[in-house]
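hey so i finally got around to running both of the ones u sent me last week. sorry it took forever, my laptop kept dying halfway thru and i had to restart like 3 times lol. anyway pasting them below in the order u listed, first the sequence line then the structure token line for each. didnt double check formatting much so if smth looks off just lmk and ill redo it

first one:
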Amino acid sequence: MTYYYIGECYEKLGELNDAISNFKTAVEMDENLADAWVGMGVCYQLQGDFAVGLRYIQKGVEIDPENPEYLASLAICQKQAGFPDKAEGTFAKATILEPYDQEIWLDFAELFAERADYVSAMGKIKEGLQNIPESNLLKWRRIALLFLEGKRKEALNQLNKMLETDQEGFNQLLEYLPGIYNDPDVLNMRDSFSL
């Protein structure tokens, strides 16, 4: 496990080649160390080598097929490798295993949003909110998707409600929809609350 932890530290530092080297040593010492297989795959994914990333993440999933974090990593890599249909099925399994992880729901919704299927993306955000009704991240993404769907009035209404309770979260909306910063109605609403 030591080499796995060293690899994890290198990954967090962005030293991906050193991370991969340590993850490889970890799996040489214990070929059933799913964390190291997935970590190695994520590093290759981050380097843009999706085929190798997929192979290693899949190996980790084979060892621990009920781990929603591994499945989410696999789905993200599948999406980036150009397999959105496979990613959809993998995300679906991850959300069944872990319905209370807002990041998985956000990534699942993004799979559809990237293809401009905002209705399906909104469906995933709504499913996430059914499981995690207190998630402000999901609520901010819902507002962004309402704007993208062209439901401006509803988006502005939801924005007003969110600003009443989570003014700092406004940055979530700006990160996802940077063009919204030029919308005078949005700016006026934001300015009406003390940030």
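and the second one:
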Amino acid sequence: MNRDSIHVAKVEALRFLHRVDALERYFVVNHVNMPNPIWFGTMETAALRRASMDLTRALAKMRSRRPSDDTDHYKTALQSRCRVQSKV
């Protein structure tokens, strides 16, 4: 674990939570009143699934004992995601 990998995992966790909130808003807007709806095939569920995969990858890298070779590429991708989210 290092400071960068912890920060990346934190940002990915926040992005995941943001996507969860977006899906919950989608349920409210579309009047989904079922107690436990199963949804797939929407833009919101796809974004949540992607955020989940990215969070899983970030957590695995954070737990890894060996340094990652693609740290710079990953940081660049993460920074661009942060800029996009700040505009939303």
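quick thing i noticed on the 2nd:
The first helix runs from residue 3 to 29.
anyway thats it, ttyl
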